[in-house]
Amino acid sequence: MKKILILFSAVILLLMGCESTFLDLDPLDATTESAFFNSPDDFEAAANDFYRGLQSHSPTNAYGGGSWNSGFGDITDFGTDFNAWVQPAGQGATTVGNTDVYWHNWYAYLREANILIQKAEEYEGDPSDISRHVAEAYFFRAWHHFALLRRFGGVPLATKVFDVGEEALYGPRNSRYEVVEQILADLDLAMATGLPNVVPESEMGKIGKYAAEAFKAEVLLFEGTWGKYVGTTTDFEGSGSANNSDTYISQAVTAAKSVMDNGGYEIWNYNDQLDNLSYRHLFILDGSNDAGLGKSTNKEYIIQSVFDSELKTPGGNFSHTTGGRNSPSRHILDLFLSLDGLPIEKSPLFQGYYLMTDQFIDRDYRMISYFGENLPEGGGSLIMTGISSTNLSPIICRKFRAETFQDGRETFNYPQLRYAEVLLTYAEALYERDGAISDADLDISINILRERAGVAPLTNAFVTTNSLDMLEEIRRERSVELYMENNRFNDLNRWGIAEEVLGQDLIGEVIEGTEYETNPALYNPAAYIYGTKKVETGVGLVDAVIIDPANVRNYSLKNYLFPIPSAQIVLNPAMKQNPGY
Question: What pTM does this model have?
């Protein structure tokens, strides 16, 4: 890892010639290119530099100030289940900007991948000496094209190093179908031409064959369900997109199962050693937990941003952070099941909301891990007391938030894709393909996650007996398992339900029948300008506070994609804007 990090630093000096940041990238210039790529070490250094691009898809600012900047075309869960009242995209208030930092960065990253691929074609040495690095270039070319697809839909493909004034720079956008096909082709090339089957621990964070296949499964499920539930109506006029949803969904099953059978990944479950708080510690894994478990025990992270306390620190600290930004909405809290596997409105285990801590009793371990631990018996404050107009609730999300820090330098890694998502992809794609899923397939996918969460297994008989919907339960598992991991916004869109979910009143704490109702020290009604409303909760219809009213939440079909920055259309009038902007 130190070798990678040293090369990472060296390549910035050699290739960029100036300080690089995630939000201020400059393309490689011709002079530097001609002086580089003369040896396998040069190709390795350039390929190592690609990995900084992973962080444009992770919380690049979170480590300093808690501002989670997602990459893959979303705004993380800010636009969905918490803090959405200050996020224009979640309200459907996105406007056309002159520039877009993600557009700029991702095309800059694509140029760097294409430079390596071009230089490999010109390389006079043994091609096998650089095959792994070329494969990494193909992987990252797919990675950044997918980022563009999820944010903008069909975009101009960048599969070569363009010269200034080249005619291809002034052509129309490619359809989303063409972009997806290019992504899949690049991933197939990456897997076939040089990525290792097994990445040794000394190269933690490097991409292997089954990491590429896990990502391929993600792409296939995304585009397959997008085609099934959304279609091409969101794309620019005349996109010519082909709807291959059935094929993509079927291929997603195959790719996910291949990773499950061959990838060597496993769910990180140390509940016996960590008081059922594996989820809590997985996301701050640096060896500081009571069991002394460090990064080397983690075979769940498939693609990850790797941080080192000496050579590559994320900057700042994000420990003990409080505030409304990370407060869960009533909706997300009520998604978590009781330990008997039932939704709270059906479970006799659910204890209601009278004390804030009552709702945590006999609930999914993920809920405890994400939002608190060591709950005081008989109630009492969880993390904060009282609620205000700036907080959805007094409950703060603690996922990715450490208990200790070293002078602001956290050292745990950030997951871009974990094995849990592969299991969820397998279950969802299988159900979408067949309209059913066997108990055996549930046992090798979702029930592995439910076991770690302490929740009773999901079976077909259980669904029938309790009048549940299997697809809804599969989607519920994805929502609670991947909470705060930059998936929810995109999931709502590809399922075609974003207007429904994001168009509702955003609800905070339950007031009626709780400790807040009669205690002004905990709840001041005057602080809530939108008042309360009757909402369906685990105890029936009760009053809860409105954080953001439905009449300002105007999310519509156009918001499934972000607008193309206007400066790009001025430069290339042949490039059409997304509908509605």
Answer: 0.88
